[in-house]
Amino acid sequence: MTETTSRPTLEAVAARAGVSRATASRVVNGGDGVREPLVERVRQAVEELGYVPNQAARSLVTRRHDAVAVVIAEPETRVFADPFFGLQLRGISKELTAHDSQLVLLLTEGRDDHARVGRYLAGGHVDGALVFSLHLDDPLPELIHGAGVPTVFGGRPGWGDGTRDAAAPVYVDSDNRGGARAAVRHLVALGRTRVAHITGALDQTSAVDRLDGFRDVMADADPRLVVEGDFTPAGGERAMRELLERCPDVDAVFAANDLTASGVLRVLRERGRRVPDDVAVIGFDDMLPIAEQTDPPLTTVRQDIEEMGRLMARLLLRDLDRRTSKESAVRGPTDVILPTTLVRRASA
């Protein structure tokens, strides 16, 4: 027997349940207007026969593909080296899996990839997109807007002044500025007077917000105490060496993330600076594979990265459900800001 003739059909499900094909189709495809006893009979028939819906046929009925694109505006070498992305993807995957939706991962290695992502999204392959790690000059927002797919962003978009799009973007972020303030206030409370900040990549809003939080507390700080990094261990090492050349009397460092802080700790150890006796160090993220294994263990600002991913997916799925049920006029929240907390360990 061929695979086609051996697979149970929707007609077989309808016959087993004693209902019409149209009724069976509505139940299988999540439609409304079917009495509960009939729903239970169809579901039982599906289970008994091992019926698997044809996705192409189902899409014609529901106008849904049960697939969501996750677009990370970073090259794969960065994505697979930074635990931040793995945690966020895990949160997204858990939420999508719970709603029987597939994750389609799209990375951008260079400018040519932006056009490729735009074409894919415009091609009607997915129901919506989750996009994060955007840079301020990134063309992806315009391409995604042109594709017309529902989208939720991870991190505060950098065009909130309305210059890119009249519609307010939906996004999930952490309280980057408040978390930075808490970190720097802790360093000041320890009696540190030469508090420095190694930033993240300043073409990303999370780095800008953390720098602003530093400046909220250290408004009169020596400008030489701020050195630009790039959210990587190598960037942290480079920036820390530059900082020691500029200000050898530095006695505290707030690093833009834990990876940066790990690079800072390596350079301080090389230079014979004791942590926290000579220089106190605080990071941001609280990624346990890093923060608990540095020497000494890292004091850091915790943000719930996995929960950010879950919330991004949840907001998108709710929006898709509203559109499917023709309730798109009912608008959900345009943004969610998660709280941050300072986690004290041995480095500060």
Characterization of this structure:
By secondary structure, this protein is α/β, with parallel strands linked by helices. Helices cover 46% and strands 15% of the residues. The chain has 15 helices and 12 strands. It has helices at residues 3-6, 10-17, 21-28, 36-49, 55-62, 76-79, 83-98, 111-122, 140-147, 176-189, 205-217, 233-246, 258-270, 288-291, 305-324; strands at 67-72, 102-107, 128-132, 151-154, 171-174, 195-198, 226-227, 252-255, 280-285, 299-302, 335-338, 341-343. β6 (195-198), α11 and β7 form a beta-alpha-beta unit.
Q: Layout of SSEs?
A:
Elements lengths: L2 H4 L3 H8 L3 H8 L7 H14 L5 H8 L4 E6 L3 H4 L3 H16 L3 E6 L3 H12 L5 E5 L7 H8 L3 E4 L16 E4 L1 H14 L5 E4 L6 H13 L8 E2 L5 H14 L5 E4 L2 H13 L9 E6 L2 H4 L7 E4 L2 H20 L10 E4 L2 E3 L5
Parallel strand pairs: 1-2, 1-3, 3-4, 4-5, 5-11, 6-7, 6-8, 8-9, 9-10
Antiparallel strand pairs: 10-12
Helix pairs in contact: 2-3, 2-4, 3-4, 7-15, 8-9, 10-11, 12-13
Task: List its salient traits.
about 350 residues, alpha/beta, 6-stranded parallel beta sheet, 15 helices, elongated
